[in-house]
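Reopening this ticket.

The earlier resolution said the output was attached, but the attachment link was broken on my side. Pasting everything inline this time so it's all in one place.
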Amino acid sequence: MNFLHRERAELEALMPGLDGALARRPLAELERAPSPAIAAFKEAGGPGLLVPAAYAGAGASALQAVRVQRAVGARCPSLAVATTMHHFSVAGLVEAAKYGDGLEGALLESVAKQRLLVASAFAEGRAGQNILAPHLTAERRGDRIVLNGSKMPCSLSRSMDLLTASVALTGPDGVDRLAVALIPADTPGIDVRPFWGTQLLAGAESDEVRLTDVELDLSMVVATEVTADAVPDALNVAGFLWFELLLTAGYLGVASALVERTLQRPGGAADDPAAHLVPVEAAMLAVEAVARAMADEPLDEALLVRALTARYAAQDAIAETTRSCLAALGGMDFITSPDGSYLASAATALTFHPPARSRMARPLREFLDGRPLRIG
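Inline output:
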């Protein structure tokens, strides 16, 4: 079947052997914790996907990356969610390396060569909280910074090699600004505790990471110009672009797995495939359009709005597709196999990732009226 062939070819080219390794295992085995999918991802060189070739990585473009994420999501939803957080963090390091003092480049090379996994303690999933607001406290002590707090959920919590976290640092002008801390996972004071209370997407390892008096050299902190009003600067706009596109592509992959099962069911060849195909394919085309634009357009607020538009359109497409596919698969499939209902439930989880559609209603309206985009 030609469905998903382009995405799987891209995945095979950039992470040889991963698609086959995932396809050979039952969905339930891949989705449990601990998931064998994470080790397979590392073995295939997945951590270096977005690391530039100059730093020994694959140097994938945004277009290649979203296709890879869709292919991964179609095999293992938990891996797509978990690796989105890794790729998002790596993409942030790539952007920071353009302005940094060389530390970021050395870290990127380590990520690619040593196949390190990077977890993100940046975006917080609490209702009503601004996702740019740091949830870890940071105290300067000479040339060190001491971190306290926790992140829950935090994907890759039990497999991470590095943790990226948002913190607030007070500048010479007395204003608190957002900074990103890079924390080795074996740093004293880091503790991982159970948090994820459902079997859905359990393989993403989204538990709590708690930091207690974690000391970090100031050289491991990348400063930004973001203040409390949450107007994103160039570095954060780029990060949000990657996050929204990779996340959306992964969840469209999950929905695509359900479409694939529907098209391949006994008797399915006689059906009109449009009802199942069109919503997710159209949504993916929107994601790809923004990914293509990232190659030759400014990574600005206008492009981020387009990415958010594609993401929210994908939520609608997933809702429509999961309904039609479950109806087509019928009651016997629901009774005899948990895979269909699992994929449908997992795909709808895109709705729960920040920034929520309801939270962005006013900021999008303000942006249309000519004001700066704020991430709520």
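Reporter confirms the inline version is readable. The two ends are 42 Å apart (CA to CA). The chain has twelve helices and eight strands.
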